[in-house]
Amino acid sequence: MAVPKRKHSNHRSGKRRANDQPKAKQLHACPRCGTMAPTHVVCPNSNCGHYMGRAVIEAE
After folding, report:
1. pLDDT tens digits, the chain, 60 residues: what are they?
2. Fewer beta carbons under 10 A from the terminal one: N or C of the chain?
């Protein structure tokens, strides 16, 4: 079985882990009411409920 000949340095390990941090959510403004919502999600505003220009959830 293969075994590493030398220990990897902290710098090398850090370079590998440089992109492992969590990313911020992509937000966009609803074109109807302007509320910020994650992309590809129905507008969370209780008075709106639109997605891609269509009413998906009935407004209260």
Report:
1. 899 999 999 999 999 999 999 999 899 888 888 889 888 988 888 788 888 878 888 766
2. N
* Residue from 23, 42, 21 nearest 33 by CA: 42
Q: Which two tokens stand for residue 48?
A: 């709106």
Inter-residue contact 27 to 39 (CB < 8 Å): yes
Helix (H), strand (E) at residue 12? helix 10-16
Looking at residue 53, what DSSP letter applies? T
CB neighbours of 35 closer than 8 A, spacing ≥ 6?
29, 43, 44, 45, 48
Please, which residues bridge with residue 29 across strands?
36
What CA–CA distance (Å, rounded) separates 42 from 28?
11
